[in-house]
Amino acid sequence: MALRIHGGLTPAISALHVPRVRTRLAVVENVSRMPGQRHRENKGPGRCFAQGLAAGVAALAFRGRVARAAEGDEVPAPSPLPEEFPPAIIIGGGRLGEAFAKMGMGSDVIVRRGDSFPTDAPKGPIYVCTRNDALKDIIASVPADRHEDLVFVQNGALVPFLDKNLQPGLPVTILLVYFAVAKKGEPPLDGKTDTDPEGLTAVNTGKWAQEVCWRLTTSNLACRMLRDPEFMQAYWEKNLWIAAYMLVGALHDGCTVGDVEAKHRKEVDELIAQLATGVAAANADVRWDKLLLCDRLAAYARSVAHFPTAVKEFEWRNGPFYDISLQAKAAGRPDPCPQHTAGLEKLGVVGKDA
Fold first, then answer.
1. If you classify domain 236-347 with CATH, what class do you get?
2. What are phi and psi of 48, to 5 degrees?
3. What is the pTM of this model?
4. According to the model, what pLDDT value does residue 71 have?
């Protein structure tokens, strides 16, 4: 068996400052001599030995770099990413775009508003960190042969839009973001809850799912990789939370998410149950225990209690659920989400005869 070490400098010297070098914790893997037989070594004395060996090797390398720097030589930086992860392109320089850039190793390319897609762009993932209403133009600006590299991080029901605007079968990556960036430049706050202490953020099995997980987990953020139908259930669950909590909050003078959970729990739980019924009727693989679902979504609301509420980006958030109601009515069936429809009508978001 041979030991392979990835990830730059080890914890033993990570606190030391090296110019132009950003460090990450080393990942020690136990690698079989036979290809394809690799597993992470997480426990036991072998790990301690490997970490000690890694620390010693890295310390010697560090001393050599410092000595060369003292002599005026250029200090070489370690490889910025694992070999399988090229630098990323990040479209959008706002709070989320900057956060994803900081999760990288400093070699990512940021494309800001008004910039053209670079002709010499690296062959890594393309993180789309813009508002939903810019997505169509963003897709048009990216060469068609790079569409499979797109990573979408927006809230809302993206799947119908992507089905319409991308070539069928592309392995695009969709990230369900449950962390928040309060202000540009601040570190993300993970949305871990008392019902899901391991975190809720999830990614589908798109082309760059492993890179997304690497970027988040090495930045102390949770990330689950889910296959269908588990991913689609998680996708609808997040959209349920947005649609229900935003609508109930808007109906109560735009109170905070925390107030919705604390003061209007019965109302929001009833709405969630109706929306979940509508989604399950239209998606045979999606099923919930509604009591557990309401508890999970309430726990998330408590973790972001300060968030304001409003019904906005209707096409992406409440619109897909309203479409379920319209389809049921067109087929001569009762509205599966009458509370949702009534709330939208009361706010004037939709007409009563729509």
1. mainly alpha
2. -60, -45
3. 0.76
4. 44
